[in-house]
UniProtKB/TrEMBL annotation:
<dbReference type="GO" id="GO:0016740">
    <property type="term" value="F:transferase activity"/>
</dbReference>
<dbReference type="Pfam" id="PF05686">
    <property type="entry name" value="Glyco_transf_90"/>
</dbReference>
<protein>
    <submittedName>
        <fullName>Glycosyl transferase family 90-domain-containing protein</fullName>
    </submittedName>
</protein>
<keyword id="KW-0472">Membrane</keyword>
<keyword id="KW-1133">Transmembrane helix</keyword>
<feature type="domain" description="Glycosyl transferase CAP10">
    <location>
        <begin position="186"/>
        <end position="422"/>
    </location>
</feature>
<feature type="transmembrane region" description="Helical">
    <location>
        <begin position="12"/>
        <end position="34"/>
    </location>
</feature>
<keyword id="KW-0808">Transferase</keyword>
<dbReference type="InterPro" id="IPR051091">
    <property type="entry name" value="O-Glucosyltr/Glycosyltrsf_90"/>
</dbReference>
<dbReference type="InterPro" id="IPR006598">
    <property type="entry name" value="CAP10"/>
</dbReference>
<keyword id="KW-0812">Transmembrane</keyword>
């Protein structure tokens, strides 16, 4: 009896040790799958990786096709003012000084998130000084004032060079739009806080009045602003957005759409969103149309320049730990952007159209399960693919992502913000010149 009991105890210890060991191996495999940036994770393990921040109960739907179809017919109230003017690419796309009426006529739909944010804060009784005081200024944030045509920086918080460059890039974009304004000194005085972090919850901006780079549909208190990349992006020496666009135009000048590589290209860091990005890797693996590879920034493994991406007919787009700033660069190519259903919204996303005559990108499921079918359809219908690519160019590269559109957006943001934040600047104790450093 004593020997039997000892055997049972030994068996229990063995089972316990095996269980602990198995749990340890499982935890290590999950950790490895989430943190590896190499294509060395089996598809089965990819299925086991938790979605984490990529969990999406419902992706964002953009229904703004009417914003594009109405380009040819401005509202009747504007016809008198616009009798001799309409937006022309090649003449107006670099004009940072378009009037408010010209901006509204040239870029319908671009200001949707501003209007949404204004309506939200009107329904909440406007933004008060207390609302602004309750916003903690954390790393990656800045507070500034626009008054009498000048920009004053009240405070910034930065952790490392990356924060500093992005904050300076955002302030540079604001100052550029302000300097080019045809009515610079007539802009209302506003005080605002912005964050250059990828996500609203990277800083304490949830339910607060903050300008941000991207948001989920449920994050309604924030308002979107153009990202720092329009000024410059120091990563891999990409430089100003306009410089990248010109390089792409030059590279595509002698490359017809029909002569592009009939493949889907994507490069990216897998650990930014392992479940999402590895799903694309697994679905495209071994497909004749697939050129999908991981990117190791430290070693430049599988690196492709922005111009090199444009050699392909199809360019994949995948969100990272939040939005992916690379979308605007992909939209600069005369190629078909193929993106999963998006969870994060940027300021220009309302112009994305996934079907119909104005279609300017191809949308697939978030797990890419329908990607092979969509690619087969596109490859069998090259004329349809070229139509989508041309629509993308007309919508984004030649209109909504131009310097003129960016400047118009900034000024519309200031006007909209002034509608709901007049209480913040009314009867302030000290003038802006005493509270902040003027930015020139």
């Amino acid at each position: 009896m004593h020997r039997s009991w000892n055997s049972w105890c030994s068996l229990r210890r063995m089972i316990f040790a095996v269980t602990i060991g198995a749990c340890g191996v499982f935890i290590y495999l999950i950790w490895f799958g989430m943190n590896s940036d190499r294509d060395n994770v089996p598809p089965l393990l990819t299925q086991l990786i938790p979605a984490g921040h990529c969990t999406c109960q419902s992706s964002t739907s953009f229904q703004c096709a009417d914003c594009l179809t109405c380009l040819a017919s401005p509202p009747p109230s504007e016809l008198e003012h616009l009798a001799t003017w309409s937006f022309q690419y090649g003449r107006d796309d670099q004009n940072l000084g378009l009037s408010q009426i010209q901006c509204q006529a040239a870029f319908p739909g671009l200001f949707h998130d501003i209007q949404r944010g204004v309506e939200y804060w009107k329904s909440r009784g406007l933004i008060s000084r207390d609302d602004m005081r309750m916003v903690p200024l954390e790393d990656g944030m800045a507070r500034a004032i626009i008054s009498n045509g000048d920009l004053y920086v009240v405070a910034t918080r930065a952790k490392g060079d990356d924060h500093r460059r992005k904050i300076l890039g955002t302030l540079g974009s604001i100052h550029r739009a302000l300097s080019a304004s045809p009515n610079r000194t007539l802009h209302p005085t506003i005080e605002f806080i912005f964050s250059i972090e990828d996500r609203v919850d990277d800083v304490d901006a949830v339910n607060h009045p903050v300008w941000v780079l991207s948001r989920k549909a449920s994050e309604k208190s924030v308002i979107l602003m153009p990202d720092f990349g329009y000024w410059s992006w120091a990563k891999s020496n990409i430089g100003p957005y306009g410089q990248v666009v010109q390089s792409i135009i030059d590279a595509e000048s002698n490359l017809k759409f029909a002569d592009k590589e009939k493949k889907l290209v994507w490069r990216g860091k897998l650990s930014f969103a392992p479940k999402l990005r590895r799903a694309l890797l697994d679905v495209a693996r071994g497909k004749p149309w697939g050129d999908v590879k991981e990117l190791d920034w430290s070693k430049k493994t599988n690196f492709l320049s922005m111009e090199d991406h444009c050699r392909y007919m199809f360019i994949g787009h995948v969100e990272g730990r939040a939005y992916s700033a690379s979308l605007k660069y992909r939209q600069a190519c005369r190629s078909v952007v193929v993106a999963h259903k998006l969870q994060y919204i940027q300021h220009h996303h309302y112009l994305l159209v996934s079907s119909g005559p104005e279609q300017n990108y191809v949308e697939v499921e978030r797990d890419f399960s329908d990607l092979p079918k969509r690619m087969d359809e596109l490859l069998k219908n090259p004329e349809e693919a070229e139509r989508i690519a041309n629509n993308s160019i007309k919508t984004f590269r030649e209109r909504y992502l131009t310097p003129a559109a960016e400047a118009c957006y900034w000024r519309a943001l200031w006007e909209g913000w002034a509608e709901v934040s007049a209480n913040v600047t009314h009867d302030t104790e000290r003038p802006p010149v005493d509270r902040g450093l003027r930015s020139d």
